[in-house]
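Continuing the batch. This is chain 6 of the set; chains 1 through 5 are on the previous pages. Same settings as before, nothing changed between runs. Recording input and output for traceability.
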Amino acid sequence: MRLTEHPLLRFERGREVTIYFNGRPIKAYEGETIATALHAAGIRALNYSVNKKRPRGLFCAIGKCSSCLMVVNGIPNVRACITPVEDGMRIQPQHGRARLPEKAKPPEFRDAKVVRADIVIIGGGPAGLMAAIHAADAGASVALLDENPRLGGQLIKQTHKFFGKREQFAGVRGVEIAKILSEELRKRENVQVFLETSAVGIFQEKDEKLVFAVRKNREPVEFRGRAIIVATGAMERSIPFENNDLPGIYGAGAIQTLMNTYGVKPGDRVLIVGAGNVGLILAYQLIQAGVEVKAIVEAMPKVGGYFVHAAKVRRLGVPILTRHTILRAEGKERVERAVVAQLDGNWKPIPGTEGTFEVDVIALAVGLRPSIELLQQAGCGVRYVRELGGHVAVRDGWMETTVRGIFVAGDSAGIEEATTAMLEGKIAGIAAALRLGIAGEEWLKEIEGAQKALDEFRSGPFGRHVLEGIKKAMVVGG
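Output for chain 6:
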């Protein structure tokens, strides 16, 4: 199931290692995650539910759901989607709730390594990278942490070229933007980067802000700074339908991670649910990887994504069925079929219009919701804003939340494009340095320029609803 050829990508795999799944040896490569290696070996069921013991498989692939929790070297609740393989690793499916081994000692923060910086940035995607680069250029020391094994966030799986202006990487593929920004970050000596590091809480202690984190599932780290930028991105949405928990049902981003980041095919035949830009782009990325796309179903009466993407998909022979939805997935341990139906004017399935697709993958491209758990825990004001994808942190024009010194940027501030995430990251990084008195007034022009670029990018038809949402998310008078 590993890809050896791709029209756009070249997969540089590390040293071959052996991991053991239920005692069975599995070939893997250094740099892959556990879930990736298991998928390449055809293993889909990663754990079983607590109550009905139903199989669960990979869903988000970014560590934000519980679908891939496994027992690794005797330790339960390990997120297989973001944990890199190690030679000799022993892995088992997790059956419901699991207990730590009797001899296991959980990390204690009194033994934590302490890292100090002016600004602590949580998240190494497009927003976090831009925030770190510009905060560092403005004179601040920066500590950036990300729970994934590599920087770039959603960029590392995007093979399409970006729209917009040259200054916002127009015409450049997301995977290349991730490399450019990562290389830029490494040039700055006042930035420390911590990968495989999960933030678990934000607290205030006198004049310092604390981010408690765990590195590589076992090493406690305490980050101390005077300002924090939360750029934690978003997580995949699901929709209700029968058997929507079967292995083989993925969020769109998980499929992109498998294919475009690690070079592993998710399956052979795919049904996509959702005809927004993500669903349309995913369709031709699947075809590039040699996967058959049976159809795209969309509940709305018209395609939600850009016409250029829809036209490309149709030219490739993929039917787009508007006013249709998925009724159920069929299969025992994994997806074997999908049943869809046409919808009436009241969004109800029309009897007699059912159709069955023989597929082994169902891709849900039904949107994202902001990841704001850390912001809520830190006491930041939150509002539900439909236009921005759900609950978001209240903030001002400098991306500062209602808790002074805590900033937000990117999809965690509202679901938009990677371009807007980068611009918001730039604003937040410079603003944090200004708030701390590190940056000079000349940096105000940089913020104004980024705000103007945001307004221009959002001025199109797809940005109007976002602008309405941003008004609702702004601090009154901010």
